[in-house]
């Protein structure tokens, strides 16, 4: 029998794939922020302002696009990281593979849609629904982790 | 013999339980922020302001309660995530179960008290002591991880 | 044969060591922020201002050093956490130990240099290169995780 936390376990394999998608998406927000900082000539640090052609440029924190990307990135960190951490424990509870698969896919879809809602932006409550869907999936995994770990 | 990172290991089971408490608490700060944004009519995005009855509402970032909750949430992310990540390695070092149990409980208690101190708010240095207790527990686990991994 | 996620696996042992270095460094930014808040008499909360001798002190968010440390801390959270999470899956793919070792060391070096660049501060693009190096290492691990998990 394979270890529960190894690629010999199909639930772990699925978890690695969907976690990878959402962590990768979160990580990409960093270089995307850099790209918009450069194209919008908006920096947080004195030494970064030297990258601009405008030699009198000062740090500023009010570019609408850059701040929107940063809030989206922050929301990812606050939601994706708890999903992956709870997910590791959840996989260790040996859930039904079909249920696990639905939860992982729903979470990944909710986070990609959340980013779309934030970046377009789409009218509320579309983003709010995506956010709550993600929290709900993580909550469902958390429930099983507590059931198993408090036995 | 069970795997060290599985519910067959009582230390892992305890770790899953107390990690679950603190990750769950961190995750809940998201919907709590949403609740106070709605009840205080304070939003970060133009499209969110349409949720308000006041059609001339603009994004604002100076609501004392919302900003306090956000700082508390941020402090959770900065402390709970390192605890859980170091904790996984710490459980893999096969620590004495009694010591592990004390560390996990102390950390969880320190973070719930930290939130209470932040939200009431209680006079300093109560919050600072809770913060340092959490850092100390994670530091103690880190010490064992370094001792084991640098052998 | 040992479990892949245990200290019996030399790749896991190396991963624990280098992850520990970068998580520990991230965690330390918290107390360092506290130290500079106290020495610069700069606080975010009304109740913290009572720690000051100046009884009329108000919360403020414009101390250059404190805000710089906070941005550095935030950048750590946004990059170190994805590295460790992808790293767990990456170790489970059973990579060549020599390749894994190079990736872990490169990441750790890039993050310590990133902090040095941020704190001195060194002229750009030094910090930007460190940031992209870290993202590149995590991306390389992510690539292998996707190859293995989508099979």
Short description:
Chain A is mostly helical. The first copy, chain A, is about 75% helix and about 0% strand.
Give the key terms.
151 residues; homotrimer; mainly alpha
Structure characterization notes:
Chain A has 151 residues and is an all-alpha fold. Helices cover 73% and strands 0% of the residues of chain A. Chain A has five helices and no strands. In chain A, helix 3 packs parallel to helix 5. Chain A is elongated and about 60 Å long. The first copy, chain A, starts with 9 loop residues before the first helix and ends with a helix. The model of chain A has no long low-confidence stretch (mean pLDDT 94). The interface between A and B is medium-sized, with 36 and 31 residues.
Distance between the termini of chain A: 24 Å
Helix content of chain A: over 70%
Query: So what's the overall shape of chain A?
Result: elongated
- Whole-number radius of gyration of chain A? 19 Å
| Share of residues in strands of chain A | under 5%
Number of strands of chain A: 0
Order of helices and strands of chain A: HHHHH
How does the helix and strand content of chain A classify structurally?
Answer: mainly alpha
Q: Largest interface, with Cβ-Cβ < 8 Å?
A: A-B, 36 and 31 residues
Low-confidence parts of chain A, pLDDT < 50 over ≥5 residues?
A: none
Number of helices of chain A: 5
Nearest-integer average pLDDT of chain A: 94
User: Please, what is the oligomeric state?
Assistant: homotrimer
For the sheet with most strands of chain A, the description reads: none
């Amino acid at each position: 029998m394979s270890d529960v936390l190894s690629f010999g376990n199909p639930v772990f394999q699925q978890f690695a794939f969907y976690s990878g998608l959402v962590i990768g998406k979160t990580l990409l927000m960093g270089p995307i922020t850099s790209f918009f900082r450069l194209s919008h000539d908006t920096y947080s640090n004195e030494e970064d302002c030297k990258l601009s052609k405008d030699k009198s440029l000062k740090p500023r924190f009010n570019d609408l696009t850059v701040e929107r990307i940063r809030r989206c990135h922050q929301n990812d960190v606050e939601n994706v990281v708890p999903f992956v951490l709870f997910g590791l424990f959840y996989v260790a509870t040996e859930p039904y593979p079909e249920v696990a698969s639905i939860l992982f896919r729903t979470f990944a879809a909710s986070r990609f849609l959340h980013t779309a809602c934030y970046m377009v932006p789409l009218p509320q409550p579309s983003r709010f629904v995506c956010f709550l869907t993600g929290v709900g999936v993580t909550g469902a995994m958390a429930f099983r982790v507590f059931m198993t770990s408090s036995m």
